[in-house]
Phytocyanin domain-containing protein
Amino acid sequence: MASFTGSFLTVFLAVVVANSSATEFQVGYDFGWQQPASNNTALYSQWASNNRFHVGDSLYFNYKNDSVLEVDKWGYYHCNITNPIIAFDNGKSIMKLDRSGPFYFISGVPDHCKNGQRLWVQVMDPHPISQTPPSIADPPEPYLAADSPAPSSSLGVAISNTPCSIVIAVLVTILASVCSSP
Ligand SMILES: *[C@@H]1O[C@H](CO)[C@@H](O)[C@H](O)[C@H]1NC(C)=O
Ligand SMILES: *[C@@H]1O[C@H](CO)[C@@H](O)[C@H](O)[C@H]1NC(C)=O
Ligand SMILES: *[C@@H]1O[C@H](CO)[C@@H](O)[C@H](O)[C@H]1NC(C)=O
Ligand SMILES: *[C@@H]1O[C@H](CO)[C@@H](O)[C@H](O)[C@H]1NC(C)=O
C-alpha cells in the first residue's frame, strides 16, 4: 500500500511540476509574425485555438520589417494603432501573459492587421493538473467579424472553477496516508 501510494505520489507530483512550468509559445509557429497569405487570413486565430495559454506563459513574436502592438479589444477589432498598451519593433519580442483574461495583439502596419495579422488569446488561470476539459468549440472570432460580440470567457471560467484548494486537499490526503503508514 505504501509503495503504491508512494509511486502514485511521485507520478502526481511529476505531473504537477511538469505542468507548472511556464511555456513560451512561438506565435505562428515557423511562419512567425507576418501578414498571412490572402487565402489564409485566419492563420492566427487557428494558431491560438491550437494552443492553451496560462498565466505565466509568454508569447514570442518573430518578425522582420514589422511590429507588434498590444492593444485593447477595440483596437484589435478596428486595427487601430494609436493607443497601444505596449509596442515593439525589435524583431524578436516576448510578451509575458501575466494575468488571466484576453490579450489582443496587432501588427503596427494597419494593412497587415486588416489582412489578418492580429492575434487574440484567452489566458487561463494557472492550472497545474493535466485533466482539463478538451480544447474545443471556443475558437477566436473569425477575422472579418469586425463588431462581433465579446470573446467568450466561458472556457477560462470553467477551468478556474477547479480551485487550487482541491489540489492541496488531494496532496494533503496522499501525504497523510503516506505519513501514517508504519
Ligand atoms: C494558399 O495558396 C497557396 C498557393 O498559392 C497554397 O500553397 C496554400 O496551401 C494555400 N493555403 C491555404 C490555407 O489554402
Ligand atoms: C526589410 O526592409 C529592408 C529595407 O527597407 C529590405 O532591404 C529588406 O528586404 C526587408 N526585409 C523583408 C523580409 O521584407
Ligand atoms: C483610433 O482611435 C483613436 C482614439 O483612441 C481615434 O482618435 C482615431 O481616430 C482612431 N483611428 C482610426 C484610424 O480609427
Ligand atoms: C501537462 O498538461 C498538458 C495539458 O495542459 C498535457 O497535455 C501534458 O501531457 C501534461 N504534462 C504531463 C507531464 O503530464
